[in-house]
What we know:
Layout: H1 2-27, H2 37-50, H3 52-66, H4 76-94, H5 107-118, H6 120-123, H7 136-170, H8 184-211, H9 213-217, H10 225-247, H11 251-279
Amino acid sequence: MIDILTYLxxxxxxxxxxxxxxxxxxxxxxxxxxIDEKKASFxxxxxxxxxxxxxxxHALTLYQTILAGTGLNLGVGSAVxxxxxxxxxxxxxxxxxxxxxxxxxxxxxxxxxxxxxxVLPLVFPSLKPLExxxxxxxxxxxxxxxxxxxxLTIAALHAVLMTxxxxxxxxxxxxxxxxxxxxxxxxEKLLFGIIWVGFILLSLTLLSGVVFSKEVFGQSLTFSxxxxxxxxxxxxxxxxLIGRQFYGWRGRIAIRxxxxxxxxxxxxxxxxxxxxxVVLNR
Length: 282
């Protein structure tokens, strides 16, 4: 009963914080400039700190779900929940740095996504614990993989946001709640910084899976849909970074390649787990 209440509390608080962020953004354009700026800043900080409460409750549910019993119970529901939590936490933490505060606009949809993600382990429970989880190689592989997925998820969200900003540049009359975002060029620079870090972590994930497959998974490397889409995703991001370095790829080209790479990554891990656990019940 206590576990269910923790899930419910996290879900409701995510919804509440997301609504407060959205409401605050909606009210800001209507206010005259330079009126009660200190008060408005104080409200934003309060909402930002309030986000920590559902994040902590979400972390507690992940601990209860993944570490319950022996081994790691990392089913499709808990895997998605963990990735979304890491994404939300990274965005929330970035709000403490002034140069990224404009990006806190994304916390509203992220809070909504986290509200859904926090209850996914209840809808799609893990069928069986993962094997070999006591091995240091497996733990390192898992931490790096989850970090890579989270950063590349942020890159995909960032690419979508850049698409919206670019649309507004061509339609200046369109009313926007995103007027406080950084300039498009600054966002593009940040996008490639995120992709570089995510790409390095993804490379380490694939490398550890190939070189230490026996130690990590208890068996030699086998070719599967997960392996195929994982390397396609890696190749997509590698091509994007090479195109950026040597051909100056930017704008819509960069956004498209980012989103394609992210979709391949989803198919590699979440897609394969969904098919195995939900469709095939294995």
